[in-house]
Structures are given as C-alpha cells and as structure tokens.
Amino acid sequence: MSSSLSGRFVKVSVPEPHVALVELSRPPVNAFSVEFWLEFSDVFDKIAQEPDIRVAVLASALPKMFTAGIDL
C-alpha cells in the first residue's frame, strides 16, 4: 500500500498499524516547487482515501533539514 501512496518527492511508509509516515525527499533542502506542491497534495488525497490510516506523521527524509523557504 505505501508504495502506491508515494511519489517522486514524497515517500510514504506504514511503520505501525494505522500510521502513515510521510517523508519529504527533495534534495538538497526540500524546497517546494509547483510540482512538489501538486505531489504533496496528491499524496494526502490518497492517504485520506485509505480507511486503515488514522494518522499521518510529516517528517523529512533529509538529515538536519525539514524544508527551506517555507513555514509549514
């Protein structure tokens, strides 16, 4: 299931039952572009359709960097 939820810049895994771990992964600094925003939205739309997912945890796949240029 998690691989069908992931995209090019947003990786989704299910580390525990009912939990989606959503990791931003657009090196070098997770800067949001139009393409990134569209994928981000699409991933959360897909998660919302999953009846087994109850919570989504948003994190960065990049060490020491969450995002650059945006307060999210």
TrEMBL record:
GO molecular function terms noted in the UniProt entry: delta(3,5)-delta(2,4)-dienoyl-CoA isomerase activity
Task: Extract the InterPro entries matched here.
Answer: ClpP/crotonase-like_dom_sf, Ech1-like, Enoyl-CoA_hydra/iso
- Tell me one Pfam family matched here: ECH_1
Question: Which family does the similarity line name?
Answer: Belongs to the enoyl-CoA hydratase/isomerase family.
> What protein does this entry describe?
Enoyl-CoA hydratase
Organism of this sequence? Cerrena zonata
